[in-house]
Design brief:
- The longest helix is centred in the middle third of the chain and has 14 residues.
- The chain folds into two domains: about 100 residues, Cytochrome Bc1 Complex, Chain D, domain 2 (Orthogonal Bundle), CATH 1.10.760; about 80 residues, Cytochrome Bc1 Complex, Chain D, domain 2 (Orthogonal Bundle), CATH 1.10.760.10.
- The protein contains eleven helices and no strands.
- Helix content is about 55%, strand content about 0%.
Length: about 200
Amino acid sequence: MRLSGLFAAAVLAAAFPAAAQDAARGRALAAQHQCTACHGENGRSAMEGIPSLAGQLADFTTIQMILFREGLRQVPPMNQAAAGMADKDIEDLAAYFASLPPGPPEDRSPRDPALFARGEALIGPRNCGVCHLPDFRGRNQVPRLTGQREDFLAETLKAYRDGRRAGVDTQMNGAVVGLSDAEMEALAHYLAHLE
């Protein structure tokens, strides 16, 4: 992973003026690019391993799309979808998904009280609420986690721990170092069941 490229993507995304984003145009682009085929008609994914984008922060989505477009984050279907996409299109797509009401996917599993409590106990020592905020709604380029797909969260946490994914900095890699798969699954369960 080229950290200078990640930093450049973050700087570029942060420079986008929020007022320039057009959610209505983004909705048309989402239909044109068939984003909803995987991410859901209402932005809530019904596909295992595919994140929900409803209510996701526009800055975060913009950065991820730039990383896909520039080949700095490798997820082949997304690299293909973002290839050659104009900055304005990325901004508008991000604005569209940010405008959708967040919420859990329809196929969310029932809350397991013991697993939920175990995940909640892991949150504090990891200081997750510092970056993602105490209610995990995220801010700026830090993603919203509440109501996200549990399977996606668990796999993402494992990818950070195992060095298969890096953000625009290494905060997440360090935050999950030493956690077992079972602990990551508990964290994912907790976050996926927050309202």
